[in-house]
Design goal:
single chain, seven-stranded antiparallel beta sheet, 2 helices, elongated
């Protein structure tokens, strides 16, 4: 599948589909990882369905390349409004259940001391969109 509709109505896509067929940028997502209970930001490479063993049900999974933790000093000085991360590329690739994805975010390139970084922008109200019945339009472009 090329897209995943989240409970908040947003549609998360994966990198390959977006880079080869259109200019959308909805493949960066926030996820909950249970190790520290804090959200992480990553770039969805693709979605897969698999069965861990023959007795378990089929699970929907996402292969995600993570961004670093936010720059702590910038985060503190901005009162947690400027979230600046580095893209870790292949250094931190994880596989998670798609149920851990809870929001689509934009990661906008910027430089800090000549270092390539990305700052996160989330869609305002995305965490509560589903309360009002909001559902993102899915204008599929198939090639």
């Amino acid at each position: 599948c090329a897209r995943l509709q989240l409970p908040n109505g947003q549609i998360a896509r994966y990198l390959w589909k977006e880079t080869h067929f259109n200019s959308r940028r909805s493949h960066n997502v926030k996820i909950w990882i249970t190790l520290d209970g804090k959200p992480k930001v990553g770039e969805v490479q693709y979605y897969i369905e698999c069965r861990i063993d023959y007795t378990s049900p089929v699970e929907a999974l996402a292969v995600i390349k993570l961004f670093s933790l936010p720059h702590q000093e910038l985060l503190r000085q901005s009162h947690a409004t400027f979230v600046s991360c580095q893209y870790l590329e292949d250094a931190c690739t994880i596989v998670v259940n798609v149920k851990l994805i809870y929001s689509v975010v934009a990661m906008i390139p910027h430089k800090l001391n000549d270092e390539d970084r990305f700052y996160m922008i989330k869609k305002p109200g995305a965490d509560v969109n589903y309360l009002g019945g909001y559902s993102e339009e899915d204008e599929q472009i198939d090639q």
